[in-house]
Design brief:
Chains A, B: Pfam families: Annexin. Chains A, B: One of its GO terms (molecular function) is calcium ion binding. Chains A, B: Belongs to the annexin family. Two copies of one chain form a homodimer. By secondary structure, the first copy, chain A, is mostly helical. The first copy, chain A, has four domains: 69 residues, Annexin (Annexin V, domain 1), CATH 1.10.220; 73 residues, Annexin (Annexin V, domain 1, Orthogonal Bundle); 76 residues, Annexin V, domain 1; 69 residues, Annexin (Annexin V, domain 1, Orthogonal Bundle). Chain A has 20 helices and no strands. In chain A, helix 1 packs antiparallel against helix 2, helix 7 runs parallel beside helix 15 and helix 14 runs antiparallel to helix 15. The longest helix of chain A has 16 residues. Chains A and B meet through helix 8, helix 9, helix 10 and helix 12 of A and helix 8, helix 9, helix 10 and helix 12 of B.
């Protein structure tokens, strides 16, 4: 790793938008009311929706589906105080199926939500790369602050660190090494690009791919330490200097788990909206629907970059994301997802 | 890394105290008043102490030397609001020498303080292990929350991540690998020990030492991922099964930088109070005083475990830490350090 230069503050602009892609509210689809009822009012309405003979699912969607993360946090706290009962438990006992899963994930604090999703993925009997998506997403398509909060939530919830569970659950050494590097990152989060470093590290990555050393310390260091803007410049550089995009060159080495994981990492860093458009597209297209992935894609990005994902979806699939969701889901589950997408049914 | 077991919640007690050693206030020497003046009053008194012909150093010590981290934070914020001037800048322009350095370090938020100390260490012309102490201390003798806050502060202050600066500044590959692993950690922070894991990993460490593979991925994983209680049990196990303490076995391989760094890591994890007693002792004993180390030792631990450090100092040096500090310093610097030690001069 001797060749790594220090990035000085030569604030050269990359072609990417200067505002952080992950700022909540910036490019999200969630519609929050201009004047929101107090957490007490919301809690009372939720309590009423849970009570009585039938549950008022529409009422629940109307409230929670139009509140942002900080508002939902206040509702959770207030509900607990008012009724001495956890809002999550109440939802769990009143709703069911995919609708319940989606509302619960949406109601958790985002850090607890991702910690639980990661834990579920690591303990799942389903193996393979698809299952590890959430870990890549929270490391490569989220803010460093969010990742740190997820790691803290993981420790609180599961009595060990996320890294310990990765080592215990992922049997492939190369995958383990990459995932450990990624989840341990705390990247610089502003736009700061050094083109010399981009050049140098594009070459280093190219060399590693040429010699098939995909988990060389240098590769892990570059992917898990450099800031997202710097990495995008490095990937641009790679394509300009070496002809192909870096993920294409990696996939030429094989279509195994390691190559697929690295492709996912690069996509999440380079164009998270494309990754999530594909998560949602893949969950819908073909026989049957993968509700867990569909829910994860929409619930985790509705407050972040769903507007961009919608555009990318159109680019990739030449059809509307919203229509696809409506066509492939039904009932309250559909109504809830459409609400998070900013629509009405 | 295949052999690592998952640690299940078999809450076996280790011999260590169950309360976190790093809880602020628990074993600190700092004396905070029962009834503290408001941040406004404190700010006004500080402003007065700075004004006029001479600076009122005693007044400054009397206030800041008796406020904990959260109180100092409020004073910083209030001072800024009242006088449109940073408290740190004011201290910088009114005080001088080692006294100034100590008061400024004490006044910073602990995360900013350690980020600045780490940055200074990485940019220092002084080379060698001694210089890297602060990085080991914040990774191995602090809470995971504090380490995450330091990494965030580092990004905000220096326009790159701590890891990027470690890679750019530390030229030795093995040292770099260990430091990167340590600073990236987010350990589980409660007392949870699995004796099977301790046994297994004590053997793995022993094997790595025997084969001189001190920076094997397994070693870095164990030292930078396991919780402090688990690691202490592993070190105990090592000594029981293999005769010597692990740091002794490491030092048998040589007295180079790598061995010394690992020894420091183990000491900081196993008995941080012993590490800091030695930091303070070494800074005082012999010709001249190393004021920077002395200040760091006292300022960073006065709110954490100075009572334990004092005891360890007596064990090691058969003399009083407080007497040593008084004997080796003078003037306002002495008065300030003694105040943080809970004494009066």
């Amino acid at each position: 790793m001797k060749s790594f230069k220090k990035i000085f503050s030569t604030k050269s602009k990359s072609s990417h938008s200067p505002e952080s892609s992950f700022k909540i509210g910036g490019m999200g689809s969630l519609k929050v009311l201009d004047v929101t009822p107090s957490p007490e009012e919301d809690s009372e309405k939720l309590k009423k929706a849970f009570q009585g003979l039938g549950t008022d699912e529409e009422g629940i969607i109307e409230i929670l589906g139009h509140r942002d993360a900080s508002q939902r946090k206040k509702i959770r706290e207030t509900y607990q105080k008012l009724y001495n009962e956890s809002l999550i438990d109440a939802i769990h006992s009143e709703l069911s199926g995919d609708f319940r899963k989606a509302v619960i994930l949406w109601t958790y604090d985002p850090s607890e939500r991702d910690a639980r999703l990661a834990n579920e993925a690591l303990n799942s009997k389903k193996r393979g790369i698809k299952n590890l998506e959430i870990i890549v997403e929270m490391s490569c398509a989220s803010s460093p602050q969010h990742l740190a909060a997820v790691r803290q939530a993981y420790c609180s919830l599961f009595d060990c660190s996320l890294e310990e569970d990765i080592v215990a659950s992922v049997s492939s050494m190369p995958l383990k090494k990459i995932l450990l590097g990624l989840v341990a990152s705390f990247r610089y989060d502003k736009e700061l690009v050094d083109m010399d470093v981009a050049n140098l590290e594009a070459d280093r990555l190219h060399e590693a791919i040429k010699t098939k050393e995909l988990v060389h310390d240098d590769v892990v260091f570059i992917l898990s330490t450099r800031n997202f803007y710097q990495l995008r410049a490095t990937f641009d550089c790679y394509q300009k200097k070496h002809g192909n995009s870096i993920d294409k060159d990696i996939m030429k080495l094989g279509k195994g788990d390691l190559e697929s994981l690295l492709k996912m990492v690069i996509l999440c860093i380079d164009t998270p909206e494309k990754h999530f458009a594909e998560v949602i597209g893949t969950s819908i297209i073909g026989l049957g629907t993968d509700e867990d992935s569909l829910t994860r894609g929409i619930v985790t990005r509705a407050e972040i970059d769903m507007m961009k994902i919608r555009g990318e979806y159109m680019n990739i699939y030449k059809s509307s994301l919203d229509d696809a969701v409506i066509g492939d889901t039904s009932g309250d589950y559909r109504r809830f997802l459409v609400t998070l997408l900013g629509g009405k049914i």
